Each structure stands twice: as C-alpha cells, then as structure tokens.
Amino acid sequence: MSTQNSTEEYMEIIFTDDDLPYEEEILRNPYSVKHWLRYIDFKKKAPKHGVNILYERALKELPGSYKLWYNYLRTRRQQVKGRCITDPLYEEVNNAFERSLIFMHKMPRIWMDYCTFLTDQCKITRTRRVFDRALRALPITQHHRIWPIYLSFVKKHDIQETALRVFRRYLKLCPENAEQYIEYLAEVGRLDEAAIVLGKIVNDENFVSLHGKSNHQLWNELCELISKNPDKVHSLNVDAIIRGGLRRYTDQLGHLWNCLADYYVRSGLFDRARDIYEEAIQTVTTVRDFTQVFDAYAQFEELSLGKRMEEISKLATPTEDDDIDLELRLARFENLMERRLLLLNSVLLRQNPHNVQEWHKRVMLYEGKPHEIINTYTEAVQTVDPKLAVGKLHSLWVEFAKFYEKNGQIEDARLIFKKGTEVQYVKVDDLATVWCEWAEMEIRNECYDEALKLMHKATVLPSRKVAYHDDTETVQARLYKSLKLWSMYADLEESFGTFKSCKAVYDRIIDLKIATPQIIINYGMFLEEHNYFEEAFRAYEKGISLFKWPNVYDIWNTYLTKFLKRYGGSKLERARDLFEQCLENCPSKFAKPLYLLYAKLEEEHGMARHAMAVYERATNAVPTEEMFDIFNIYIKKAAEIYGIPKTRQIYEKAIEVLPEDKTREMCLRFAEMETKLGEIDRARAIYAHCSQICDPRVTIEFWQTWKEFEVRHGNEDTMREMLRIKRSVQAMYNTQVNMMSAQMLSSAGSMSGTVADLAPGAKDDMRMLEAKAAEMVGTTASKGGNIMFVRGETQGGKDNEDKVVNPDEINIDDEEEEEETDDVDVPVEKQSIPSEVFGGLKKKNDDEEDDV
Questions:
Q1: Label partner for 523 (CA 20 to 30 A): which of 385, 449, 483, 619?
Q2: Share of the chain above pLDDT 90, in %
Q3: Which of these, 613, 620, 563, lies nearest to 586 by C-alpha position?
Q4: Distance between CA atoms of 252 and 289, rounded to whole angstroms?
Q5: Tell me, what's the pLDDT at 347?
Q6: Which pLDDT belongs to residue 744?
Q7: Sign of the CA dihedral running 37, 42, 48, 49
Q8: Has this prediction a pTM greater than 0.85?
Q9: DSSP letter at 105?
Q10: Positive or negative CA dihedral for 657, 663, 666, 671?
C-alpha cells in the first residue's frame, strides 16, 4: 500500500497535465540543455524532491553539462542552508559534489564551491584533502583561485602545524606573499620562523612588498622583532643583522643602535647594552641620531638606578656591596649627564672636523682643565684643513698662543705664533692677523723692540714680486702687500720708532700703492706733529695723485683745511690754485663744503668780487637739493657785502633754477624783502608771477599771504586784480585736470569698454583719477617747475592799448563767496607781470647796480 502511494506521489509530481508539453519536448530532444533548463525553471516552485529528480534525469542524459551541474549543486546548497551541519542532507550534497567532480574535475568553480561548503561543515581533515585534490586536479594557472580559500581555512582553525605546511607550499608558488605568512607567524607566536622569513625577504633585492613597504621599512620591522623578543628568536645572529643595517642605512643609525641595545637589555646583558650605547654615541654623526641614542641611554641608566634603589629599599639590612653598587650606578648616571655637551660637540666635529667654531666651543667645555685644552688645540690645528675650514682658522692659532700667554708661558706662545705663520691660509688677511696678534702680544708684555722686529720681518720684500690677488702663490709670498700689516707697522713706528723709520714706513706704503685715504691723512698728521708742514703737503699731493673722486674727497678736505690753517692768506694764489685743481673734476655731491671753504678764503683774504663769483659758481655746481641752501648763503653774503638791493638778481636767478616748491618759498621771501624796502609794486609783481604755479586748492598759505599783503598795502582795484588772478589760475588747473582725466578715462575705456559701461563704483574711480591728475598738473604746469622772469613788454601792439571792459564786474563785498567759487567763467590765460610794473622794477635795478 505504501509503495503504491509513493508511486502515485511520484506520478503526481512528475506527470501532471501541465508537465506533458515539457515531457514531450524532452522525449523529442533528450540532449538539449535548453529544454531541460526550461523544464526545470517551470518546476522550480515544485517540491524539492521533484526538482532534484528532474536535475538527476537531466544529468543522466547530459553528465558533461557544466551549467546543469552548477545549477544543481547551487540548488542543493540552498536547500540545506540554515540546517544543522549534522543533518544527513549535508552528506547527500557532498555526494552530489563528488559525483560532479567525476566529470567537472577541471572546473575551478566546482572545487571552490565544494571546498567552501566543506569548510562551513568544520570537517578539517576531509576539507584539507579536498583542497589538495583540487590543487592536484586543476592546472597551475588556476591555483590562484584555490589558495586564498585554502589559507582562509587553515587560519580559521587552530591547526598551526598544518597551516605552516600549507603556507610553505603556498610561498613556493607565490613568494611575493611572504608578508602574509609573517603576519600569521606573528599571530600564532612563531617569532623565530617569522624573523627567518623576514630576514630572507630583506636580503632579497628583487622582493617587492605587496603592502607598499620599502626595504628600509622591512629592516625596521626586522630590528623591532628581533630586538624586542630575544627569548623567542634563536636562529638569527641579532648583533650581526643590526650592525649590517647600520652599515646599510646610515640615515637611521640612532634607531638601529637603540634596537641593538634594547636587544641586550631584554636579554639581561646590561653591561653589554651599556657598551653598545657608548659605542653609539661615539660613532653617530648627526644631532638627531645622537639625541635618540643619548635619550635612550639616559633612560636606561635612570631605570637601572631606580630599580636598584627599589631592590635595596626592600632589603632589611643592605650590605656594603649594595651601597657600593648603588653609588656606582648613580656616578654613571651623573657622569653621563655631565658629558652631554661634550658628546654633542664631538658629534658635530665628526660631522665636519673643519668647523673652527665647534673647536672653540670644545675648548670652552674643557674650562679649568689645561691639559685637555692643550690637547684639544693641538688636535684642532692638526685636523682642520685650511682649504676646507669653516670659519677663521687663524683664530685657533691665536687663541692657542693666548692660552699659553695667560699662563705666563711666553716662549711657548711665541713658538705657537711662529708655527701659525707657516700655515698655508686661504687669505693673506688671515696670515696678517696672526702676525699682528703676535706683535700685540709682545706689546702687552712690553717687548716693544721685539714687536718692531716682527713687523719688519713680516713686511720684508720677497725675492720676486707677486700680485696680491694671485691665488696660485702662497700667502707668505703675498704678505708684503697686506695693508693691515703695514698699518700696524706704521702705528708701532709712530709710537716706539724714530721719525726717520716711521717716515720710511709710510713712504714704502705709498710706493707699494696700497695706501688708503686714511693712511695718507695719518701720514700728513704725523709730519705736521713733527713740524714738517711742507712734507705733509707733499704727502697729501701724493695721495691726491693716487686716488680719484670720490675717494680723494677726504684728502682734499684735510689738505685744504690744513693749508688754510697754516698759511691763511699769505699764499693766496697757491691756495686758489689748489681750490681750482680740486674743483676741476669735483662731483656735485661733494661740491658744497669745498665751495663754501673757497668762498670763506676769498672773504677773509681775497676780494668780495671773487667771493661772490665763487658763490655764483657754487649755485651751478651743487646738486638740485642743495641749491636752496647755497642761494640762501649767497643772498645773505651779498646783502652783507653789497647791500640788500644787490640780492634782487640773485633772487631772480634762484626763482629761475630752483624746483617748484622752493621757488614758491623764494618768491615769498623776495616779495617780503621788497615790501620791507617799500617797493609795493615790485612785491605785487612777484606775487602775480609766483601765482602761476600756486594751485589755490593746494597752496592756501601763498594766497593767504598775498591777501594779507593787499589788505595792508593795496586798494580795491589791487584786491580785485588779485581775486581775478586767483580765479584764472584755479580755472587753469581745473581745465588741465579735466583734460587729463578725460585722456586717462579714454585710455581706460579702450581697454575695458566705454565710460557708460563702468561699474557702480566708477564714481570713486573718477575721483581718484581727478586727484591723480591734479598731482600731475603740479609737476607739468610750469614745464619742469621753473619760472622764468622776463621783461614786461607790450605784446599786442596798439590793439592792446585799448582798455578791455569786463562785463562780469566783481563786487568787493562778495570776496568770500568768490574765493569759494570753483566754476567761474573766466578766460584761462597765463598771468603775466604788468609791463609798467616789472619794467620799472628792472630799470630801478639797473640804476641801483650803477650806484653800487
């Protein structure tokens, strides 16, 4: 009965009315995968058993179809998903996989799915064997698809030995994945093997890290690994490995030395670790490496001391050996801290043994220890190469000798100086400094004759003359032209020598053509002190022949001053010749004091006419910025000698040549002078003339001064004329500003569009342009800032003799409103000085000149 029911169920699942078309197609095309898949897709909602039977029927007909097997195995895995791994259905699926592999053993996806499925079932041995079967069955080109799953499987379970063997097999195929193996070994605590593998890849120059690590980073990892785990790493020679890294990676010496010392510390070999630290701080060459090693060394000593103190404190009765050991550790720590600066200096000297300044610092560190200082100086002068020296090499020899001098060992100091003069310095000045210091030492010890002998010996001419700047010659051969040496020689001769010997020294300096203006001046003063005035003047003349302007200025100034002081006006013609010779090629920058000195000579001992001529020449010779001062002096002297009327011509010339701002000031002074003399018309003409360069918006003080002048000395007509001129000048400046603004705007418009296209902030830009144009007008109104005085003449013939009637009559009562008005309809014209006023002024000047 049960058999009959199962048969009916089978017939119900397989043979329904809807299945008949598919069955008929299968009967007609039993080897068509397409028809089988269509039938299976139709039956996917049927019971699992029916779908499985349909897959089995299809695979019986088509056992080599990958598509059928893949879909069947996927369907069977989905059917057992979520079930307990002990369910019998899992085994049925495993059998299905095994049956599929009879035909699909070259398909990596089937193997991958099978291995993954077995991994989830936690069947370790069976899974491992299936992985091995997969690797044997598949070609090697497909192994890269199996290994990641295999490695994941062995890392998932605690099977270290199996995992290690699997990883070793894997590295034979993919040695570039050694870092993955190292990570696993570190995880499971197999640090010895991890260090071995890491050492191999570090030594392999062709190894390329998949994690992007450089060989240097791998070295650091290896050092960290072997130094921090000395009890677990036994197969490698840690000392040799780290020292190999020290030779290979010189930019990480501090870190590698610390790793090596840390290895011995963790191994319990504290004395050996201390030796490593000492070796490190004696060999590193950079401050960074030294700082790393020294900090680690200090920390090690501090921890060692602290631990020992803690151990002793726990003892009930510490022994004498414990106290000695504690004091020894404390002394080591204190000694290390005291040596820090000295050790750092040693690092810098190893970095550059030719650094003179560091040698000086080393000597300072040994203060109070004479033997160490002498050894340091000796080592320094033997080590530093003159051609590679950084700093002043001669300072080492000088300080070395001074050290002996301070200790009263003069002979030793002289010996050091003598050796210092034999060194092949790069510059002659260095050798000269050594000789000078030697002589100064003799002076300090009151050995004056020895100092003079030294200078004489140093300045002896060589057998053949060589150029001072010829670097191919030794500095000893070029020393005879050292100005520094000769200057000190001259000073010593002045102080301790005779007049004849000192004069000979100065003459040799001049003959060698190494003298400076100061040397010439010193020579002249020396001769004057001994009352050899003419010899002094000849010395000055030699200096003048040696130098050109501007270097000769000081010599000329001293020469002329001394000559005038000596002879005054007794040798006037000779003094004049000297001044003329001096001023012949004198630059304008130095002309002012010389011309004033010349003029003073003429005033005191010569003729007033000549003095005025000198002042006249000075106004043309000095720079523009000094002209105003010269004209002031000229005017003052002319007023003192010839009287005030004589200054009119000077004022007129000053107004012609001075810059615009100084011209205004000179015009005001000129007008003030005329006013004091009662020449009101002359003063008014000067005001009118100056007004042409005075913008009413800028030079308010000028117009206020003119207004006060008219109030005191003028009338209604003159006030009206002043206001008319003011409006005319203001209109002239406004017109020029508008024209320049328009030009600037047109040029700007050609680049950025028309004025109408300007942005809303263009009004501010217009104001800025107008202000800028106003500044430019100030510099262009008078074509260079100079106003020329011309004689007043009738310009228009008889037509101009008719009186011009101004239809716009000005009311004097409205003076304030008219001054504040900007836009006035007044013709723009250049205001000229009235001919009847200025012509009379000129005629009166001529009459007064005749009187004088």
A1: 449
A2: 0
A3: 620
A4: 7
A5: 87
A6: 57
A7: negative
A8: no
A9: T
A10: positive
Q: Which helix (H) or strand (E) holds 565?
A: helix 553-567
* Nearest by Cα to 648 from 635, 631, 665: 635
| Of 845, 852, 830, residue with least CA distance to 682 | 845
CA distance 18 to 21: 7
Is residue 355 classed as helix, strand or coil in its secondary structure? strand
How far is the C-alpha of 262 from the C-alpha of 719, rounded, in Å? 103
Omega of the bond leading into 550 within 30 degrees of 0 (cis): yes
Q: Taking Cα atoms as reference points, which of 411, 405, 359 lies closest to residue 384? A: 359
pLDDT for the residue numbered 287: 86
Alpha-carbon span 495 to 793, nearest angstrom: 75
Q: Indicate whether 566 pLDDT > 80.
A: no
Residue 715 DSSP class: -
Please give the share of the chain, as a percent, with pLDDT higher than 70.
82
pLDDT of residue 752: 43
Quick one: DSSP state of residue 460?
A: P
> By the 8 A CB rule, do 280 and 274 touch?
no
d(C-alpha 243, C-alpha 258), whole Å: 11
Domains in the chain: boundaries: 682-748+764-794+812-851
What phi and psi values does residue 735 have, to the nearest 5 degrees? Answer: -65, -45
Cα separation, 511 vs 502, whole angstroms? 14
**CA nearest neighbour of 71 among 90, 89, 88, 54:** 54
Residue 829 CB-density burial (10 A; 0-12 exposed, 13-18 middle, 19+ buried): exposed
Whole-number Cα distances in Å, 133 to 166, 403, 515: 14, 88, 102
Asked if residues 502 and 524 have their Cβ atoms less than 8 Å apart, the reply is no
Cross-strand partners of 355: 390
Mean of the per-residue pLDDT values of the chain: 76
Tell me, rounded to whole angstroms, the distance of Cα 635 from its chain centroid.
55
Q: How confident is the model at residue 767 (pLDDT cuts 50, 70, 90)?
A: low
Residue 684 amino acid letter: R
Q: What is the DSSP string of 370-413?
A: HHHHHHHHHHHHHH--TTT-BS-THHHHHHHHHHHHHTT-HHHH
- Dmax (CA) of the chain: 171
Vertex 210 angle, CA 208 and 216, to 5°: 55
718 pLDDT higher than 70: yes
How far apart, in Å, are the Cα atoms of 200 and each of 166, 186, 204, 211, 446? 19, 16, 6, 17, 76
Measured CA to CA, the distance from residue 266 to residue 364 in angstroms comes to 39
Q: How far apart are CA 665 and CA 308, in angstroms?
A: 92
Dihedral of CA 259/260/262/263: which sign? positive
What is the end-to-end Cα distance of the chain in Å, rounded? 169
What is the DSSP track for 29-94?
-TT-HHHHHHHHHHTTTS-HHHHHHHHHHHHHH-TT-HHHHHHHHHHHHHHHTTS-TTSHHHHHHH
512 torsion bin: left (phi>0), alpha (psi -120 to 50), beta (else): alpha
Phi/psi at 355 (nearest 5 deg)?
Answer: -85, 105
Which tokens is 379 given?
Answer: 């080592």
Identity of the residue numbered 94: N
Give the side-chain half-sphere CA count within 13 A for 735. Answer: 14
- Rounded to 5 degrees, φ, ψ at 390 are -105, 105
| Of 80, 83, 114, nearest in space to 97 by CA | 114
User: In terms of pLDDT, which residue wins out, 486 or 45?
Assistant: 486
Query: Using 50, 70 and 90 to split pLDDT, how confident is the model at 555?
Result: confident
What contacts 49, CB < 8 A, 6 or more positions away? 13
Query: In the predicted model, is pLDDT for residue 184 greater than 50?
Result: yes
Q: Write the single-letter amino acid at 254.
A: G
For the chain, give percent helix, strand, coil, nearest 5.
75, 0, 25
